[in-house]
Amino acid sequence: MRGAGQARYTDHTEVEGQLARRWAGADVELSRPLPSDLAVAAAQIAPDMMRTVGPYLIVQALPASLSVVEPRAHALFAGGWRPPEPVGPTCDGLAAIVTRAAGRTG
User: Which of 26, 33, 40, 100 is spaced 20 to 30 Å from 56 by Cα?
Assistant: First the structure.
């Protein structure tokens, strides 16, 4: 894997690792650059960031392009902003649904 493919792969692995941390209850890790999903999320309240985020989302720009908006996104998170919780069951709620469904037969 080379070039753009490697950059996207590395980006997604970093995002997935950080998502797993956050899903387990950890807060945003502010001691390091934000993963791309959080730079993208910050554009919810800073729509002018979409000039940079948009091309990344439609795969016309590499993950490194987000370094332009990362300091601003970092400042938003450092100030306490967090994206709204998604609608739907929590991790524990989803596990309970699967457990109940697994106990049912035919």
Answer: 26
Exposure string (b/e) for 70-86, b if CB count within 10 Å is 16 or more? beebbebbeeeeeeeee
pTM comes to: 0.79
**What single DSSP character describes residue 70?**
H
CA 72, CA 20: separation in Å to the nearest integer? 24
Residue 26 CA: distances (Å) to CA of 56, 74, 84, 88: 26, 16, 16, 19
Q: Give the chain's domain count.
A: 1
Token digits of residue 106: 């035919």
Write out pLDDT tens, residues 19-63: 999 988 899 999 999 999 999 999 999 999 999 999 999 999 999
Range of the domain at 70: 3-103
Instruction: Answer whether residue 89 shows pLDDT above 60.
Output: yes
CA atoms within 13 A on the CB side of 81: 16
